[in-house]
Amino acid sequence: MEKKIIEEVIIRKKKQGLNKEKISEKIKNTLLQKKKKRDENHKYFSAQMLVKNYREKQKSFQNFKSKSNNLSKFLRLNYDKTKEHYPIILIRICGTWARIPEEIKNILSKLNLKNLFNAIILFYNEDNYKLIKLIENYITWGFIKKNRIEELLRKRGSVLAGNNERNYLDNNDIENSLGKYGIICLEDIVHELSYEGKYSKEVLNYLGYFSLSKKDEGFDKVNIPFEKGGNQGFRGDKINSLLKKMI
């Protein structure tokens, strides 16, 4: 009797093992089929994506050429000389890197705006205004107030350290790096950035860029100018309310 029970258990185990093998094989075949289908779709979409990237890049390049040829016109009609030397902030809000012409990529890279929601402080002058007009389809910008500069520095301020890491601002490091210009603490940096001064350029080089957070709501119209209800381009002093949500 005992021998018979043992034999039945062995047979049952063998059947279970066989079922497991069949189930395993079935799952494997299903996964392979899904992978094959996914790869086929990927090839199809990749071809479409290449065409779309090319068209978008060409469209952006034509826009870039048009703006390049009309920079003197933009300066004459829109440049406000009364605002010269005041601080402005630029925030990268849109643009897929593969669809951006090389000419614009070079400017964005030079300004540390390669990544979305990177921000930099500059000063309002003719040269910077020309650069802004050339990349305006990819950014929003405006005049930043002193209290917002301080908040930005305290919450998002950082400097490049070793191994491409960024460290938060520290008064000791500020004094070691900028002390020879009489700038020894964060308050001195805020003062230097409130209006373009003798050592503002050195301060900007020291700071580099700021990484901001994406605003949760109402930030979907990035390809529509701010003046038409979107987020792109110049927004004057209203940039400060946007910054408050992104810092």
Overview of this structure, please?
The protein is an alpha+beta fold. It has 2 domains: 1-69; 83-246, Ribosomal Protein L30, Chain: A (2-Layer Sandwich), CATH 3.30.1390. 56% of the residues lie in helices and 11% in strands. The chain contains 9 helices and 7 strands. A hairpin with a 5-residue loop joins strand 4 (158-160) and strand 5. Helix 5 packs across helix 7. The protein is globular. The mean pLDDT is 84.
How many β-strands, per DSSP?
Answer: 7
**Helix content range of the residues, please?**
55-70%
Computed over alpha carbons, the radius of gyration is 28 Å
Succession of helices and strands: HHEHEHEHEEHHHEEH
CATH architecture of the largest domain: 2-Layer Sandwich
Low-pLDDT residue spans: none
Contiguous helical run count? 9
- How many domains, in number, for the residues? 2
Describe how the helices and strands are arranged:
Layout: H1 2-69, H2 71-78, E1 87-92, H3 102-110, E2 118-123, H4 126-135, E3 139-143, H5 146-156, E4 158-160, E5 166-168, H6 171-178, H7 186-194, H8 200-207, E6 210-211, E7 233-234, H9 239-246
Parallel strand pairs: 3-7
Antiparallel strand pairs: 1-2, 1-3, 2-6, 4-5
Helix pairs in contact: 5-7
Task: Give a brief rundown of this model.
With 247 residues, the protein is α+β, with helices and mostly antiparallel strands.
Which terms would index this structure?
alpha+beta; five-stranded mixed sheet
